[in-house]
Amino acid sequence: MISSMMNSKKPITLITILLTGVFIYAGTRVAYTRPGLMMRIPTSSNKKTPYLFRAGVSTEFHNFNPFNTARGVYFETELGRGFSVGFSGVTPGDTTRLSKLEESTYSAPAEFGFHFQQRVYSYNDISVSVGLQDVVFQSDQTSEEMLSLNTSLLSAFLVLSSEKDLGEYKFNTYFGFGTGGLAPVDADTLPAVLGEDGKVIADSIETNAGVFIGFLMKTPYFSRRGGMDIVGEFDGTGVNVGLRIPLTSDYRLNLGFTHMEKLPEWGNRYWSGHPGFTIGFDMAVPRDPRMRVQGGPSGPTNIYATTKSAGPDGSIPIHRDSTVAMANVAVETLRDSMALMNNEMRNLLVRLNAMEQNSKFLSDSLSSLKLETNVSEKNMNEALRYLSRSLRYFYAGDYREALKEVDLALELNPDLALAYARRGSIYYKLGDVQRATINWNLALRLDPEYTDVRNILKALNENKLKSASIIKE
């Protein structure tokens, strides 16, 4: 297998690179056989994994005629405090030139790798992890030793993760630096040389340097089984894309393409760095089989939950995952909020009914007021007509008839000052000064600004009242 390997004769150079922080991107092997959620790059998370462990298998198809594949299995688990370990076993593909693949007798050595990772920082949706992966032991058919440690494949990395919630979607971004010897080597850019056994001569290649970046988007499709994940990454040498399709809440089918940018060169390249089609299968065992939890894009989802997992008082045991506890607190808070909202809604309905009653009362009062106003206006008009007729009788000298018309006007509107003033004038003409004075005082009480009546009363008191000053209008 053509791989990016560290020159074993230059340990001082490697140490210098590590100390200065100029990392070489992590090597890549069979897609979906490294710890984490991506195809070939490492990941990080600010949450504890919701599963006890994950395990799976994966196969990369690099050519169909002649047939050439690479296969692998993996296992990973988080031990606690952000520290996780993993194991992978890989059988690489044939690195013989494609034109001689049918004649090749090359047998790729089996590789067994160990992976270690530690979360060193987390804040809100940001986390940083460092790790060591590809502690690889290879089977060597030419040596008496069954397995030998290949230190040139060792990879150290630092990865920064950002996890965002976008409504029904979740978007994770991973960016990092790394060292490693498993990144595919492009035969067009690196002077890789194959030996007679088909292996790359270590001194013939240079160590690649760079960064890796990737994203993972959890979609609401198949949400009951955990949601389908869309994976995209640049592993330092090429672009890989894939899908993680949930078969159940615990099992996923992994599909993908590696080195998409090299698909047009499918038939004329070495295997290493060659585009390939990947199919894999993984299984996640939840921490509590009775309560599946939503652990972000990585984990199974909450299909069911039983109250047996809670304490006798309804509280969550202390050993339960903190994410579950926070989720339960949030649910209880929402329930209390909904209960308060229901009470407030009932209060608002009561207030609305009261306002409707007040509105009806005001409407009835307005109608009554309009009716009274109409009646008052009608009575006023009728009273004024009686006063008009009384004035005609007054001028005609028929004071008795004039008095009757004034009385009819006062029956319709007892607060009409003009009617009392008129009746006072009629009584004065009839010679009844006392009644005339009473009516003039009533008119003045109803209308204190009635100047004519005030002048008549003043003249009456001074015995200067003349018949010409009697009110007739």
The rough form would be described as rod-shaped
Helix percent band:
25-40%
Rg result: 50 Å
> Class of the largest domain, according to the CATH hierarchy?
Mainly Beta
What is the structural class?
A: alpha+beta
Strand order of the largest sheet: 1-2-3-4-5-7-8-9-10-11-12-13
> What is the CATH architecture descriptor of the largest domain?
Beta Barrel
Tally of strands: 13
Average pLDDT: 76
**Content of β-strand:** 25-35%
Give the CA-CA distance, first to last residue: 128 Å
- H-E string: HEEEEEEEEEEEEEHHHHH
Q: In DSSP terms, counting alpha (H) and pi (I) runs of 4 or more, how many helices?
A: 6
- How many structural domains can be distinguished in the coordinates? 2
Specify the biggest β-sheet.
12 strands, antiparallel, barrel
The low-confidence runs, each spanning 5 or more residues with pLDDT under 50, are 1-28, 184-198, 200-207, 293-319
CATH fold call of the largest domain? Porin
Question: What is the element layout, followed by pairings?
Answer:
Elements: H1 11-20, E1 51-64, E2 67-80, E3 83-91, E4 111-123, E5 126-139, E6 147-150, E7 155-166, E8 169-178, E9 211-218, E10 229-234, E11 239-246, E12 251-258, E13 276-286, H2 322-396, H3 399-412, H4 417-429, H5 433-446, H6 451-461
